[in-house]
Amino acid sequence: NPFVPGLLANIVGSPLDYSYKTEKNEKACLSSGGVCTWPRGRMLSGTGSFSGMLYTRPSPSIFDNWATRLGNKGWSSKEVLEFFKKSENNLNPDLIEKDQHGFAGPLTIQRFSSQPPFADDILKAAEALGYKGNDLSGSKPNGLNYVQGMVDQGIRASTARMYLGKKLNQTNLVVKLNAQVQKINFSGTKATGVTFKDLKTGEIVTVNVTKEDTSYLSSYCHSTNSSTNLFLTLVDFLVRTSCMVADPCYRSECKDNQKLLNATADHDDFIAKLTSIRTSRNTAFIDDLIKKYASIVGNAITGPLPCGRRRVGVRPNNMLPLSKGRLVLRSANPDDHPKLITNYLDNEQDAKVLLQGVRIAQRIMLSESLKKYDVQLVFMTSPSCAGYTKDSDDYWLCIIRQFTLAENHPTGTCKMGPASDPEAVVDDQLLVHGVENVRVADASVFPTQLNCNPISVVIMTAEKCAQMVLDKNKV
Ligand SMILES: Cc1cc2nc3c(=O)[nH]c(=O)nc-3n(C[C@H](O)[C@H](O)[C@H](O)COP(=O)(O)OP(=O)(O)OC[C@H]3O[C@@H](n4cnc5c(N)ncnc54)[C@H](O)[C@@H]3O)c2cc1C
């Protein structure tokens, strides 16, 4: 059930996931033959329905770059703020910069209910080393902190639930499930409607646009423009805790829901286990690592081992990689999975950023403040890395290329930009260049990567798009 936060790991890879795979990488994901998984949600709210629910926003400089340097009018940090606020109902006013947030929108944002003592101690250790966290959706997100999540009364606050759920009785709204769009129909440069397949009955249905200028279609935009990605590897530590009897169910290998919940138990509160997600207790953005290119997110993942030891995984993450990939259609058949040519870690610097993340994780986890937990680093092994001295930079760079994982934040396949930009697919009104009435409003339009989790920006973009359509129809 995608609504139960604690069961997140068991939805990825299920029939609710498109379960794409990347094309073969030469320099990453080598332990799995160069092929990485690419989970994408096939349900209302899309991938947002099995996301980690983390709600963070990028540095304002990201939007200012979109507006000033990349020529997208209306997208500066000051201009987009009203649309973030419009969507948000933040329930932790005392923990955030109040003027950066909304308190009356449909989307409930708050900290997860589980804040175990061990996570508190990690924050203290980080603070002692100069990584004190602030509002990770504020005016200058930085440092390590408890993250806020899209969670409402312990249940996933997906857009389907928080936006659509409240409007389902409206007579002017029809939500069609199991409808796979096959094509957009055109008359000249004007879209006249869409043709979709009912996946339950096999029926092919065409729906025409009835009102001019309101043809608003949001979906994947499969183009040949550049897309970028994030990637990470896990650095594991063993820490001592009181002896507990629990299954060593760790990471997403565990397909038994009860065991999965047990694995989150560094507290006894069953409700807290269900309503929180284990990957997201502490998150950090650490800017300016290498020539201001990099940020890092570390998520502490906890899972018990049977005899008083617990594994804590820290996930160093390159938020603004320099390597770029491409998404292209494999064929004209909409059932075929796209070709995801990701080129992970193609640029050497991207791997070095991850190495820096590994070192920061070590500094925090092996620091004086956490001594009481007797923390030990777990060395990952791979026959390909056997020739390197353990813990040397070369050893970690080898491990990073072996055990790369995508952080699942792809953007930019339908880049927003002026007509003069040869890579641009949509303009700053989100209208596809050369087409009169098709807008795209999803992560594909972001002209650059974000140094945050992207859903907040997807929702802001949708709010902004809705306003554009309303404004156009007023005239
Ligand atoms: C495991 C995982 C964890 C994540 N955790 C977080 C997190 O904690 N916080 C965060 O901010 N981000 C997270 N992300 C990233 C986030 O989920 C995505 O960036 C975001 O959902 C992208 O939104 P989107 O609207 O662009 O695409 P999607 O959410 O993927 O939505 C696309 C929609 O289009 C539909 N669609 C596609 N083709 C067709 C078609 N032909 N016909 C009809 N419908 C179609 C899909 O079914 C889907 O519903 C995570 C991603 C993954 C995979």
TrEMBL record:
It comes from the Eukaryota. Belongs to the GMC oxidoreductase family. This is Glucose dehydrogenase [FAD, quinone]-like. The keyword Flavoprotein applies. InterPro entries: FAD/NAD-bd_sf, GMC_OxRdtase, GMC_OxRdtase_N, GMC_OxRtase_C. One of its GO terms (molecular function) is oxidoreductase activity, acting on CH-OH group of donors. Its cofactor is FAD. FAD binds at residues 47, 181. PANTHER family: CHOLINE DEHYDROGENASE, MITOCHONDRIAL, GLUCOSE-METHANOL-CHOLINE GMC OXIDOREDUCTASE. Keywords: FAD, Flavoprotein. Pfam families: GMC_oxred_C, GMC_oxred_N. Residues 321-462 form the Glucose-methanol-choline oxidoreductase C-terminal domain. Residues 30-211 form the Glucose-methanol-choline oxidoreductase N-terminal domain. The keyword Flavoprotein applies. It comes from Diaphorina citri.
